[in-house]
């Protein structure tokens, strides 16, 4: 199908999909500070298929589970910038979810990089990396079945050659871009990011490659985003932990003080009725080493949005 979306994946600074972090307040804050595209947290296909689409008085579009819990909330402000990331190991289920959310998002992404057990035990996330046929089936089905651009996010394989071969196969499915976390599935943030492998991928394919995994080694301020992009020869950069710690990393003019960022975040959390446990989690990630301060301990003990 023809992609009828203005979404472009070249020269972009992107908020990475992060479980419990990539909810609506964080995505809107990242856009305010200069992010070009924002990915939501990974949402599992089976859970999404149980949801009903509801227009909320908050001027949001909510996908609500049978137990009344909001699984995914979005709004007009991000409609042309948000990519819906899905956990799936089944082409038809993935397509059904994509069709459910297609009119409310700018693109659809399949998570093929998460190494956590909750993802891999259901043959999703990084487990897909060992099943190229399934990868091809899911991506081809989505590209043919929806009008919005399709992307996927992978980790690198044990060898550069195998990784490049897999990415070339993925490129043939017709996806719009591929995000590459430059670590193997058994590696963690403290392990160095393999810029050379991302670079080899960038040079091997013609679709945009989005480099991810640079927070620990590279990205401490805005200028570092370009340094990471050059080191990987990637089209764009996707930021996870550096943005979780301070989403104003996307500001060309420099970081805002954390107190200001947290206040901006809380305003969105209140405005969009974010669950207080999620709000607290995101604020605790920002505070990090300050969690042992008096303010940090009070935040950790908060049991409502009002207390936060």
TrEMBL record:
<feature type="binding site">
    <location>
        <position position="181"/>
    </location>
    <ligand>
        <name>FMN</name>
    </ligand>
</feature>
<feature type="domain" description="DUS-like FMN-binding">
    <location>
        <begin position="14"/>
        <end position="283"/>
    </location>
</feature>
<feature type="active site" description="Proton donor">
    <location>
        <position position="114"/>
    </location>
</feature>
<feature type="binding site">
    <location>
        <begin position="17"/>
        <end position="19"/>
    </location>
    <ligand>
        <name>FMN</name>
    </ligand>
</feature>
<keyword id="KW-0547">Nucleotide-binding</keyword>
<feature type="binding site">
    <location>
        <begin position="212"/>
        <end position="214"/>
    </location>
    <ligand>
        <name>FMN</name>
    </ligand>
</feature>
<dbReference type="GO" id="GO:0050660">
    <property type="term" value="F:flavin adenine dinucleotide binding"/>
</dbReference>
<protein>
    <submittedName>
        <fullName>DUS2L synthase</fullName>
    </submittedName>
</protein>
<keyword id="KW-0819">tRNA processing</keyword>
<dbReference type="InterPro" id="IPR018517">
    <property type="entry name" value="tRNA_hU_synthase_CS"/>
</dbReference>
<keyword id="KW-0288">FMN</keyword>
<dbReference type="InterPro" id="IPR013785">
    <property type="entry name" value="Aldolase_TIM"/>
</dbReference>
<dbReference type="Pfam" id="PF01207">
    <property type="entry name" value="Dus"/>
</dbReference>
<keyword id="KW-0560">Oxidoreductase</keyword>
<keyword id="KW-0285">Flavoprotein</keyword>
<feature type="binding site">
    <location>
        <position position="153"/>
    </location>
    <ligand>
        <name>FMN</name>
    </ligand>
</feature>
<dbReference type="InterPro" id="IPR035587">
    <property type="entry name" value="DUS-like_FMN-bd"/>
</dbReference>
<dbReference type="GO" id="GO:0005737">
    <property type="term" value="C:cytoplasm"/>
</dbReference>
<feature type="binding site">
    <location>
        <begin position="240"/>
        <end position="241"/>
    </location>
    <ligand>
        <name>FMN</name>
    </ligand>
</feature>
<dbReference type="GO" id="GO:0017150">
    <property type="term" value="F:tRNA dihydrouridine synthase activity"/>
</dbReference>
<dbReference type="InterPro" id="IPR052582">
    <property type="entry name" value="tRNA-DUS-like"/>
</dbReference>
<dbReference type="InterPro" id="IPR001269">
    <property type="entry name" value="DUS_fam"/>
</dbReference>
<feature type="binding site">
    <location>
        <position position="85"/>
    </location>
    <ligand>
        <name>FMN</name>
    </ligand>
</feature>
